[in-house]
Amino acid sequence: MSGSSRSERMDGSAPGLSPAELPAAADLLALTKPRITLLVLAVAAAGYLTGSGLAPAGAMGLLHALLGIGLLAGGTNALNQLLEREADGRMRRTRGRPLPDGRMEPSHAAVFAALLVLGGAAYLAVAVNGLTAALGLATAASYAFVYTPLKQKTSASTPVGAVSGALPALGGWTAATGRVGSGGLALFAVLFLWQVPHVLALGRLHLDDYRRAGFRVPPVGDPGGVRGRLRSVAYTAFLVPVSLSLWVPLGLAGPVYGAAAALLGLIFLGGAAGFALRGGEDGARRLFGASLLYLPLLLAALVADGPASGQALTGAVVWAEETVSTAPPHATLNAGLNAAAAVALVMGLWYVKRGALRRHRAAMGAAVASSGAFLASYVVYHFRVGSVSYPGTGWSETIYHAVLASHAFLAAAVVPAVAFTLYRALKGRRRGHRRVARWTYPVWLYVSITGLVVYGMLYGG
């Protein structure tokens, strides 16, 4: 039974939302599929570091790329959930998502997804380059409007989805180099070939759910799953030499990476062969586990043994040291308080989503303490010393002043609301707390994270 048909929610409210009611911050976060978005960011970072390290654009270049790609990835996932909300409501593992559960209006999800996708593309176009922005838009469009509808029509959707999933690796490369290149294409091929056996194993593990949803992804429509099991072997076998091409002949990594790629490839291929021979959930689970082991270890070896790895690590450490050492003590303190507030808010969202209300209250108290200390430090310093002029020019100066202006407006609105939200949380009035937190949490988290970014821009160069 889907959540939209429940007679009462945990907090005693009626099911569904009125059009005027804003979605909760935790539901907005869930709409972005955080774990998948983090994987996209890891893949994009590996592509960036493999392309050139941190030399061309400095540490901020990587941060700009990841911010834009992260916004696009979150928006793309939100679009996917919007378009598949009815099918998600028929599957056990997804019926608790915000849209099928009735906790969010589709119109709110559509606006949120559009803002993330368009904002991410615009940010990449301005802060990185147009090619990376175009690849990001192509990823969003192909995943949401080609792969998503194809899943209910044909098993050919699997390689189409793999193309969309591999583009972030190429996007990381183009963000660093400004061009596609053979290395970028090789990274794209690695991610493409990895995804197919990964998805085939996942499809077998959730076969009944996919049938209920009407998805035509393998092994649905494949009696015994024979074709899918053979395809998993074929794709994994091709993956081994393609991954090794990053070492020889492309020279983007050294022999340590080569050894790691060969060993991980054989383990992955063994999992695919076992799945092909035995089939069933056990074989699929082993292949799925091998796929989860393969990708992060391969990317870590690629970055660690790449020609730019030492330069990248040194550049990041030097940038951090110089930023901290040249910034006045109050700036370091304020940046740290913003970071602490952001971490506490994310933990609070995590706890409240899982019903750990006591831990949620503790995390929120920590966020209030950090934000309050920051506000006091900020006010005292600026009354004594005044404002610090931003040293940059052009688009970065425009972004800096726009963020500061938004802080002034949002802080005036959110400070009393945060106090009210905390009061209701401490009193155990969960329903009233959630009603206010739906909009205070996103604003609060935005101010904390962008406050940290502002100090990095002001003193980090």
Keywords for this structure?
461 residues; mainly alpha; Farnesyl Diphosphate Synthase; Four Helix Bundle (Hemerythrin (Met), subunit A); 2 domains; 17 helices; disordered N terminus
Protein model, in words:
44% of the residues are buried. The chain has helices at residues 25-31, 34-52, 58-83, 85-88, 106-127, 130-150, 157-177, 181-205, 207-213, 226-244, 255-278, 280-304, 309-326, 329-353, 357-384, 395-426, 430-460. The protein has 461 residues and is mainly alpha-helical. It has two domains: 3-315, Farnesyl Diphosphate Synthase (Orthogonal Bundle); 327-460, Four Helix Bundle (Hemerythrin (Met), subunit A). Helix content is 77%, strand content 0%. The termini are far apart. Mean pLDDT is 79; it is low at 1-20. The chain is built from 17 helices and no strands.
Order of helices and strands: HHHHHHHHHHHHHHHHH
> Residue share in helices?
over 70%
Structural class: mainly alpha
Assign the CATH topology of the largest domain. Answer: Farnesyl Diphosphate Synthase
Q: Radius of gyration, Cα only, in angstroms?
A: 24 Å
Overall shape: globular
State which percent range the strand residues make up. Answer: under 5%
How many discrete domains? 2
N→C terminal distance: 54 Å
* Assembly state of the chains shown: single chain
Query: Which second-level CATH architecture of the largest domain applies?
Result: Orthogonal Bundle
Poorly predicted runs: 1-20
What is the number of strand segments? 0
Q: Write down the overall mean pLDDT.
A: 79
Put simply, the count of helices is 17
- In CATH, what is the class of the largest domain? Mainly Alpha
User: Major sheet: size, sense and barrel closure?
Assistant: none
